[in-house]
Specification:
Length: 161
Amino acid sequence: MDTSDAALHCQEVAAFASVFLGQAPGVVWPEHDHPAYDSHADETDRVLLARGLAQLMGRPVQTVRSEEAPLSVRVARASRDTLVHQISGSGHWTLLPDLTEHSGREGKLPARAAISYQLRSREVLYIPPGYSWVIQPVIQPSAYLFSFVGDPPPATGHAAQ
């Protein structure tokens, strides 16, 4: 894989994100891979991905690698735009909108329901701020790169990104 693949990958993901940012969840399978996806990738590769996306999106991007243990379930809430790069394995993702932010008058809940995705290796999932997610690895080993777009929120004592 050469550096042109890395640049093309960033262009594909940034174009995809430009359609969905702040709107709704979505999934894309980029045509080009990025060196940060390799099993032997290091921090330099993740910084390359973050810088490429930041340059194209005009916002800071922080990229973090995460690996899930077999049969683990992980729950978190997005406080900023989040791109999840499924770099190996497969995971079942359930996204839940923040009902407290979207509840209408008279205490009625919105028509928005939970969304489920089977994210496969090399696919990218966009999660808007305010959505909670539940990950269940399906094919092991399951590893992800999380790209958090925008400035981190002020510290509130919570560990979520």
